[in-house]
Amino acid sequence: MRTAVLVRTESTDEGTFGLIAFGGERTYSLELPWRDNARGLSCIPPGAYRAVPTSHRRLGRVVAVLDVPGRSGILIHSANLAGDVKRRWDSQLQGCIAPCERIGRLRNRVGEWQRAGLVSRPALSRLLAWADDRPFTIDVETLT
Q1: Given CB 3.0 to 4.6 Å as the disulfide criterion, which of 38, 65, 101, 137 pairs with 42?
Q2: Cβ contact 95:80 at 8 Å
Q3: What span, in angstroms and rounded, lies between the C-alpha atoms of 115 and 100?
């Protein structure tokens, strides 16, 4: 089975940022900050997970990330913001992973500039094209 590798490089209250490498390509990644694997508030724990391209009624083509300990409904889908909502940052993720072409800043709902993943839909399209509707492994790692 083919493998994509997500390496987390930085985590703050504004989000967790990293890189996803797959088939000789790479995208940046965006996730929630680590909050002890709390549902809807935290990125998922490091580990190797089965990933299956699928259709979602609201999000369209996505990748389901399966067998995450203590979690369900984890997807790889497009998004731009993934901050800690308890600390006034915006988030479009609830534990999922968003690929993006670059990292920058967007103005959030309270008018503050927040670190963000930019150009997410094309990055997701590249990952889906590589997956070619076949399951793969996503290996999530954190740099220390």
Answers
A1: 38
A2: no
A3: 12
Q: pLDDT of 66-108, one tens digit each?
A: 999 999 999 999 999 999 999 999 999 999 999 999 999 999 9
Structure tokens at 79: 């998004």
Contact 103, 68 (CB under 8 A): no
Predicted pLDDT at 95:
96
What is the torsional sign of CA 123, 46, 56, 118? negative
Q: Residue 71, Cα to own-chain centre: how many angstroms?
A: 15
Give the single-character DSSP code of 121: H
The angle formed by the CA atoms of residues 42, 18 and 21, to the nearest 5 degrees, is 120
Torsional sign, CA 119, 94, 116, 33:
negative
3-state secondary structure of 71: coil
Question: What is the dihedral angle through the alpha carbons of 17, 127, 106, 92, rounded to the nearest 10 degrees?
Answer: -80
Burial class (CB in 10 A: 0-12, 13-18, 19+), 52: middle
